[in-house]
Amino acid sequence: MCRWLAYSGRSVPLEAVLFQPEHSLIEQSLNSRLGHTTTNGDGFGVGWYGRHSELPFRYRSLHPAWSDTNLREAARAVRAPLFVAHVRAATGTPTQETNCHPFRFGRWLFVHNGMIRQYSHMRRELMMAVAPHLFRWIEGSTDSEVMFFLALTFGLERDPRGALEQMAGLIEEVGRRYDVEEPLNMTVCVTDGEQVVAVRYSSEGASRSLFHSTSFRQLRALYPEDPRILAAGDDAFLVLSEPLIDVQGVWEEIPEATILMAKGSDIQSHRFVPRPPASGLAVVRSA
């Protein structure tokens, strides 16, 4: 499968999270300890928000993250208060740049780990459920991008929780019609640069791993001289597929069927319940 993370807090260099920790995301791309696959070398991507643009920036590549020298250089140079990153292990769709996460629409970024089972059988019906004015923005062939555009169709900009629940509900409804057992397995993250929304859910109740940081104050107490932790600030927050360091009490596993919504220091957790899409589709702005 894949590995991903999202960071929010004070502006820090991307390398402080992507490269420097002992079990960084880039190290996970070569040696994942909790993933379904050990290596995640079918491309990568980083998306971040800067002060001088309304839209998020992206850097994506179909090459393995561990061997990309340009990524290392960019991660040294770029500082951001919020960013997402993803390393990919393909599940039945081609290794190409347009299939690399994060996917983008307007201010929104989306990353996913997991799969829609028997996606090739369900693909046409799921794609036809995407709102017509959004359809032309789909660039790749992966199930993850279709999940994102379904969430946009169901009102992601207005109600992220409701949109993601309807996206999951539709996939399970279509799966039942095609006799697909347990069609959906996902950990996903969406952000608009202001909030980070993460979900851990699967039809079978055995989702991929997902954690969040508990307290950067605690980290600062443990590592008072670490400039990366000092720079991030006490209200910094990470949600991620695997912990970056092996320190007890710093990470908390997100339970099954849970949605986490973080905005600054306000972090809320709710039960995630897929439901059929509302009869009327939300109107989404074009980008």
UniProtKB/TrEMBL annotation:
Which terms does the record give in the GO molecular function aspect?
A: hydrolase activity
Keywords annotated in UniProt: Glutamine amidotransferase, Hydrolase
Q: Which residues belong to any copy of the Glutamine amidotransferase type-2 domain?
A: 2-287
Entry EC number(s): 3.5.1.118
Protein name, per record: Gamma-glutamyl-hercynylcysteine sulfoxide hydrolase
The UniProt gene name for this protein comes to egtC
